[in-house]
């Protein structure tokens, strides 16, 4: 019952709007700062630190996420320029998605992916808070974008899907065949 309320109620949509605007501003400002800073952004220092100082199991010297550290070392490090761009543009696009309410649930999903990546690397900052907000937005479904561009854009995109029944030009113009 509460879940249905969260996904359909107008008051819940208003609460989701506030959460969206807060998270959207945080993501947008982080991405914009990386893209417009005096020096080109590089995730290299962050990644190298995550490799050299992985999150350890409590009371041991054993990495808690060894597969993630391996991913950083063998896949991300050799492609650092690409991943720096992905982080910068990803943060900006997630933020704009949430601020505008355009592809809202997709924006929330990709924000969660980035936040979990940062957590696996050992960065706390706002990540747990943004994960909670992202989860709330994601579970809000269409209601999360009710006060945004989703209601205008998503139905038009759905009408473009292949196999979707479209009125024929004769039927649309009112002429008989």
UniProtKB/TrEMBL annotation:
<keyword id="KW-0472">Membrane</keyword>
<dbReference type="GO" id="GO:0016020">
    <property type="term" value="C:membrane"/>
</dbReference>
<dbReference type="Pfam" id="PF07681">
    <property type="entry name" value="DoxX"/>
</dbReference>
<feature type="transmembrane region" description="Helical">
    <location>
        <begin position="118"/>
        <end position="138"/>
    </location>
</feature>
<feature type="transmembrane region" description="Helical">
    <location>
        <begin position="92"/>
        <end position="112"/>
    </location>
</feature>
<keyword id="KW-0812">Transmembrane</keyword>
<dbReference type="InterPro" id="IPR032808">
    <property type="entry name" value="DoxX"/>
</dbReference>
<keyword id="KW-1133">Transmembrane helix</keyword>
<protein>
    <submittedName>
        <fullName>DoxX family membrane protein</fullName>
    </submittedName>
</protein>
